[in-house]
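Quick one, probably user error.
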C-alpha cells in the first residue's frame, strides 16, 4: 500500500522500472485518502501535447473514490530559467531528465498545490537520483485540474458497480489500475 510520505520513493521506483524496460518514464496518477494510498493508475500512452485527455480519464477513478489528495507523475526535461533558450539543438538535448510531480491536497475546500522535480541520470548501471526540487505552488493545467478535483467531491455516492465499470473502462482505454484499498 502507498503512503503519502512515501510518494516520491514510489515514483522513483516506478520510473526506474520503466527505464530498465526501455527509455521512457510512463505517467502515473495516485489518489490518497489522507495519508493512505487508495489507487494507482498507470496512464495510457498519449501523443505529446495530449496528456490532459489521458490524465482526465485516469483521474476519474481516484476522484470517484473520494480521494482527498492527488499526485500526477510525468516524464519531463528541466533547465534553468536563467537560460533564455532551452539547451536543445538538433538531436542534442542537454536538459536534465526529471520525473515531474504535481500534487494537490484538499478535502477542506482550500486545495494546497505543489510541484516537485525528481532529477535523474540514466547510465549503464541503472539510474542515479539527484536531490528533489520543490516549488511551492504548481502552475498550469495539470495542477489546475487536480485543484478542481480536490475541492469538489463526487456528486453522489459511488457504488462497487460504478468502481468496477470505471476500472473496466480505464482498462479498455489502455490504463493500468492498481487499487490499494477500497474506502467506504
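Nope, works fine. Designed sequence:
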Amino acid at each position: 500500500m502507498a503512503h503519502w510520505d512515501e510518494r516520491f520513493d514510489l515514483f522513483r521506483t516506478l520510473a526506474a522500472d520503466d527505464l530498465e524496460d526501455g527509455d521512457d518514464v510512463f505517467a502515473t496518477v495516485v489518489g490518497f485518502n489522507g495519508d493512505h494510498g487508495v489507487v494507482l493508475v498507470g496512464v495510457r500512452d498519449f501523443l505529446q501535447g495530449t496528456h490532459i485527455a489521458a490524465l482526465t480519464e485516469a483521474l476519474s477513478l481516484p476522484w470517484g473514490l473520494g480521494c482527498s489528495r492527488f499526485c500526477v507523475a510525468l516524464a519531463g526535461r528541466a533547465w534553468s530559467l536563467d537560460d533564455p533558450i532551452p539547451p536543445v539543438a538538433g538531436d542534442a538535448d542537454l536538459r536534465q531528465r526529471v520525473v515531474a510531480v504535481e500534487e494537490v491536497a484538499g478535502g477542506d475546500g482550500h486545495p494546497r498545490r505543489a510541484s516537485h522535480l525528481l532529477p535523474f541520470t540514466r547510465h549503464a548501471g541503472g539510474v542515479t537520483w539527484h536531490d528533489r526540487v520543490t516549488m511551492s505552488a504548481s502552475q498550469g493545467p495539470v495542477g489546475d485540474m487536480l485543484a478542481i478535483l480536490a475541492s469538489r467531491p463526487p456528486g453522489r455516492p459511488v457504488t462497487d458497480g460504478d468502481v468496477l465499470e470505471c476500472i473496466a473502462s480505464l482498462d479498455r482505454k489502455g490504463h493500468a489500475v492498481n487499487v490499494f484499498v477500497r474506502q467506504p
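Strands lie at 28-33, 36-42, 69-78, 88-89, 92-93, 96-105, 112-123, 126-129, 133-135, 176-179.
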